[in-house]
Amino acid sequence: MNRTILKGGILFALASVALTASLKAEDLPPAFPREGSRKVLENSRVIIWDATWPKGKATLLHEHPVDYLSVTLVEGAVKITERDGTSSVGRPAPFGFVRFNPKGTIHAEEGVSDQERRAIMVELKTVPKPAEAAATKSGFPRDGATKGLENDRVAVWDVTWIQGQRIPRRQQGRDAVVVFLKGGVIRQSPEGAAVNDTRWNVGDVLYVPAGTDVPSEEATQGPPRAVVIELK
């Protein structure tokens, strides 16, 4: 009888541990998709969302399953509630600010200012580190480009295309995400092809794969400004 009770107790304990582990892994939804967010782009390396935090609308408690970055397009205050129920309202991230956040971040969020925060959220997929292309006449560093944060996942540049200054043809050395902070027109001049003018607006996102041959270019209106996130 005692052995039966002991065996039953052990099985119950093991089942409880398994259930607890399962709940820890599965009871929290991912951060996206959610109301107020729109998927902009997805490929083998990133998922990119254009997100807002409306006043008075709280998200569910959620977990960010991968490392991610936020690029602030519109300042706004957000209340952060931790898993233990404690909450705080930090200083709003300024326009153009880039923050890196590690995977496993758990919280709920709620806009608390009349002006809704808006940000481009770049989720970094967990993939084997790719071989970098041999960068020929790489675009960085250069005039108008300032390096921001850098770690083992990304290198971030704040870039302004100086009007009238031509940037030579180059090869993109790393996969890169470009998030435009200020609009304008960039003129590219491919060798042996027609000149191409492209207008970029605030919040536009561009993905440039490693090895891309980028024609010489210059700003003709603006000048445009963007955050360039090089993926490692």
Beta-strand fraction estimate: 35-45%
Helix segment tally: 1
First-residue to last-residue Cα separation: 61 Å
Which structural category fits the helices and strands?
A: mainly beta
CATH superfamily of the largest domain: Jelly Rolls
* CATH topology call of the largest domain: Jelly Rolls
Low-confidence stretches: 1-25
Total beta strands: 19
Please state the CA-atom Rg, rounded to the nearest Å.
23 Å
User: Overall pLDDT, averaged?
Assistant: 89
- Under the CATH scheme, which class of the largest domain? Mainly Beta
Summarize the structure.
By secondary structure, the chain is mostly beta strands.
Q: What secondary-structure arrangement, pairings included, does this model have?
A:
Elements: H1 2-26, E1 37-42, E2 46-53, E3 62-63, E4 68-74, E5 78-81, E6 87-89, E7 98-101, E8 106-111, E9 117-124, E10 145-150, E11 154-160, E12 170-171, E13 176-182, E14 184-189, E15 196-200, E16 205-208, E17 213-214, E18 216-221, E19 225-231
Antiparallel strand pairs: 1-2, 2-9, 3-8, 4-7, 4-9, 5-6, 5-8, 10-11, 11-19, 12-17, 13-16, 13-19, 14-15, 14-18
Kindly describe this structure.
With 232 residues, the protein is mainly beta. It has 2 domains: 37-124, Jelly Rolls (Sandwich), CATH 2.60.120; 145-231, Jelly Rolls. 11% of the residues lie in helices and 43% in strands. The chain contains 1 helix and 19 strands. It has one helix at 2-26; strands spanning 37-42, 46-53, 62-63, 68-74, 78-81, 87-89, 98-101, 106-111, 117-124, 145-150, 154-160, 170-171, 176-182, 184-189, 196-200, 205-208, 213-214, 216-221, 225-231. The strands form 5 sheets. A 5-stranded antiparallel beta sheet has the order 1-2-9-4-7, with no helix packed on it. A 5-stranded antiparallel beta sheet has the order 10-11-19-13-16, with no helix packed on it. It has a 4-stranded antiparallel beta sheet with strand order 3-8-5-6, with no helix packed on it. A hairpin with a 6-residue loop joins β14 (184-189) and β15 (196-200). The longest helix is centred in the N-terminal third of the chain and has 25 residues, at 2-26. It is globular and about 60 Å long. The chain starts with a helix and ends with a strand. 22% of the residues are buried. The model is unreliable at 1-25 (pLDDT under 50).
